[in-house]
From TrEMBL:
Keyword list, A-Z: Metal-binding, Nucleus, Zinc, Zinc-finger
PANTHER family referenced in this protein's UniProt entry, alphabetically: ZINC FINGER BED DOMAIN-CONTAINING PROTEIN 39, ZINC FINGER BED DOMAIN-CONTAINING PROTEIN 4
Cellular component annotations (GO), alphabetically ordered: nucleus
Gene that encodes the chain: BX530070.1
MF GO annotations: zinc ion binding
Protein name (Swiss-Prot/TrEMBL): Uncharacterized protein
Organism, scientific name: Nothobranchius kadleci (African annual killifish)
InterPro entries: RNaseH-like_sf, ZnF_BED_domain_contain
Subcellular location: Nucleus
Length: 92
């Protein structure tokens, strides 16, 4: 497993440039230089901007993408109705 290198509190708007600056700081702190080529992130546009500024490849988070897809499916009226019926039987 890959260790977590750092968590940083950010007290300003988390724009792509701000995120890129924070990531760059951690990369420098651990002397990673050109060793980082990709990052796993959610689908937020600020992360796209950050990774583009850092010249990192984007690897979308599968769990986040799957969660978004499940939410979209649940928004379909027939699906949410079906789930409500199942819940009423199972919860009893």
């Amino acid at each position: 497993p890959t260790p977590l290198l750092s968590t940083e509190a950010v007290y300003e708007s988390q724009t792509g440039l701000v995120v890129a600056k924070e990531i760059s700081s951690v990369v420098e702190q651990f002397n990673l230089g050109q060793k980082v080529i990709a990052a796993t992130v959610d689908n937020a546009s600020n992360m796209d901007v950050a990774l583009k500024n850092l010249s990192f490849l984007k690897v979308g988070c599968f769990a986040h993408t799957l969660n978004l897809a499940a939410q979209k499916v649940y928004d379909i009226p027939a699906v949410s109705s079906w789930c409500a019926k199942i819940r009423s039987v199972v919860v009893r």
